[in-house]
Amino acid sequence: MGARTWNLPRPLSHSSISLYAECPQKYKFRYIDRIPEKPKHYFSFGSSVHSALEYFYGAKSLPPPSLDEVLAYYKEHWISAGYKNQAQEEQYREDGEEILTLFYRKHAPEYHIPLFVEYQFNMEINGVPVTGKVDRVDQMPDGRFSVIDYKTGKALAKGRAGTDEQLTMYQLACEKLLGAEVCRLSFYHLPSLTEQVAERRSSALVHALEKKIVSTAEAISSQEFSPTPEEKKCFWCDYKPLCPVYKPQNTPPPAAFATEEDVSALIDRYGDLRAQSKALEEEANFLKDEIIALFEKKGYVRAFGQKYEAIRTAGERWKFPDKKKFLELLREHGLYDRVLAPSAPKVRDLLEDQDIESALREKLSALAEKVETSELRVEPL
Ligand code: SF4
Asked: Residue with the nearest Cα to atom 5 of ligand 1?
């Protein structure tokens, strides 16, 4: 019998297997329909801190980067997506700085260069392609491996490192691809600087994971994407407005309504449409940012799809490193009403207004910082 071919949109990973287990319909939205989820600030924060640690442990030779260099790298590679507002983002940025500083002070004295940092693996389990990335792999003096995964979220549940399938997957990958035994698995919780360590997984647990990988691949290949709704998980699901469980089955609204049921149906229909349009708008904004980032990387100002042409144009926005002081100065001089919330055009008008005393304009300019941005115009071909 020949090897089975799998109909998968991409290799499986710990997170995609978990997503399928959470809800097959959600997996379909994410990986088959390729509808991105909304950016989440906690993912951005985790990636920002991870990349600073990757820089710290990625040194090619000793000595390691200094704390100042690690913090400078962190600031330069900060990911802004998904924060509710500037204040929340600033708070997280400061928290990350503190975490990295404390981490550095604790671990720099014992620094050694790991065997791998962000070890990207690709393997096959019964022909199923599987991929993933291990934060750090150390080689012990006896040649065996220690696997570490950094966590930036809430405190770890007791004993999680002893059972979590993510670490089982990493053991499986390291042993299969790097050819030595894993003797130590750990989750390192960065906000508390505590490490939860577990021994290597038993073969029974590794085989159970292999079976799960194959059964997930079978289900996806057979197009099994039935939704598995549950109040709590659906509440937080970005795809709820698109989900068949929540979409009204009979979409045409009544032309006129006379009964209370009709009003109620219209209200629900209206609410669903609003939620759907919000989800679509968020997706469009996400794609716009992706296109702009690609344009900037490749130096494009114009590119073409099959139906549309996209043109990058220059925009500007203002940053206020000390917003409080800036607003105080405006209030003091009776100019607060001119901006209310400082936006690029309003601030530009204010700073160019010849009726405002030049000394005051200079003071205000010193508190504001103009940032060049890219905008995107899309027109039908
Ligand atoms: S809303 Fe619930 S059932 Fe629908 S995709 Fe999301 S998690 Fe699954």
From this structure: 26
